[in-house]
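explain this.
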Amino acid sequence: MKKAQLIGVTIAGIAGLAAFVMMKGLVNKPQPTKQVTVQVNSTEVLVARVDIPLGEIVNDGHFRWQTWPKDATTANFITKSKGMAAQRDLVGRIARAPFMAGEPITDHKLIKPGSGGVLAAILPSGMRAISTKIKEETAVGRLILPNDHVDVILIRRMRSKTGQEQHVSDTLLTNVRVLAIGQQIETKEGKKSSDGAAGTATLELTPRQAELLALATLMGDITLSLRSVADAGDGAGPTNGTDITEERGTSIRVLRYGTRSRAYGVN
C-alpha cells in the first residue's frame, strides 16, 4: 500500500472514531430535570416543642411555631393569626392530657390553675372518682397501673343457714377504669409496676357505683382483678346487674341475670 493511501485510511479511521464518540455522548446525555414549584397554602401552628406529660405546668419553653398546611388545621389549633397573646395565655396552665413533641397544642387539653385539680380535669362528665384500699395481694402484686381496667370483688364473712360462718365473694363491678394508684395518675415510660408505697387505687365510677363501693368497703375486703386489654371495652361498668336496692337500710343485693342471689347486711 502506498504511503498516501495509508495516510488516507488512518485519517478516515480517526474521523470515524471521533464521530462514534460524539454520537455516544449525544445518546447518553442526561435529560434536563424540570423543577415544578407548588405553592402550598400554609400557616403557623403552635405545637409542643418537647413531650409534655399529664399534669405538667407548661411555660414558653414547651411551645414552638410550626409551618402547617392551612387545609389541615382545625378551629382547636392555635395559629399565629390569633396573635402571640394566645400563646402567653397558655403559660402556667396544667396539661390535662399528655402531648407528644410536634403535636398541635389545643386549648381544651390545658386547664387554668384554680379550675380544679388534675384528676378532676381528666374525669369524664358525670363520672366520679373514689378510692379503695389496696395491698400487694389484693392488687395483682402491684402490677395494676393507671388506665388499666379491673373488676371489683367483695369478699366478706356471712353466716350460713346452719349458723356457721363462711366467706363469700361476689364481683360487684366489672370493667372499671383505674384513674390513679396512690398519687400516680400516669404510667411512666418503662415503669412496669406501681409505687410500692401506694395504698389506694382510685377508680372511675358512676355516682351509683360510687355508693356501692363505699358501702362494700364497710362490709368486707375489696380485691381488684385485672382485665386484659383485649376485652377492656367489653361490658363497661356494672353491666352484670349489681346495684343498691331502693329500699331503706344498709343492705346490698347482688343481681345476676335479673335474679337476686344474695342479700348482705352491714349490721
User: Anything to note?
Assistant: The first strand starts at residue 42 and ends at 48.
